[in-house]
């Protein structure tokens, strides 16, 4: 004899079904958003590493009376590098705005806050960029500019990863201790990034080719502190990889994400030590900045993989009792 399912297990009305993952084109757009956020970090690094930070000596204009570089400017090729980075900001903003429109059209209103956060962050970055120019590339402001970019890369990554999953409440996919270790690793990565920017601010790449502005710190001592933090972070990442491998209930995507994070960490460490022992060539420093973006993306993917969407009532099978 069959018994009908109870109210809590009955399929939800079609109109209340949770929004599905975004479509393929929207997903690609959200991924592009991550890419351009990383790209502007790298181009901003090139501006600094080539001494082009004051290639456009005013803001928002490049020079008084012109928003674009002029032939009469004395900054040489630096003006084109700095102007190119400013122009890229417009592209980044357009992609972010397209993401906001796309998630709304997809019915994924849960993603609107992340899309809006990226747009708001871009506007904040434009203001910080202007302050940086008016303060003649003070290392503290330059440092803030980079760290806010890392936050934007994180928000864009959350937007992309969450868009690939259905909306709704989430549940733990791994043990609390493992989730805690992942968040501890994320906090340590934040410390690595902060000290890394201090290392750059104390070193030769200030952004101004003529009058470098630096922190009055010993670059070697700060570099050693940075390396110590990296070693601690690497140890935590290795522990995460092992823990996710031995836990049978760990989601496969969390295991894959942790391995990607470990590979990115080891590669970044190799580049870091190489640039240190070769006298900080600007090309390697730029690669190191790109690696920082990859690390942030990989870390966020691990964190988002620690939980999974709760199965919706409409997706559960109705229990039948004989």
TrEMBL record:
Pathway: Porphyrin-containing compound metabolism. The keyword Transmembrane helix applies. Pfam families: COX15-CtaA. The keyword Transmembrane applies. Its main location: membrane. It is found in: Membrane. It comes from the Bacteria. It comes from Kineococcus gynurae. Keywords: Cell membrane, Disulfide bond, Heme biosynthesis, Iron, Membrane, Metal-binding, Oxidoreductase, Transmembrane, Transmembrane helix. It is a multi-pass membrane protein. InterPro entries: COX15/CtaA_fam, COX15/CtaA_HemeA_synthase. The chain crosses the membrane at residues 25-47, 87-104, 111-135, 141-160, 181-203, 223-247, 259-276, 282-303. Signal peptide: none annotated. This is Heme A synthase.
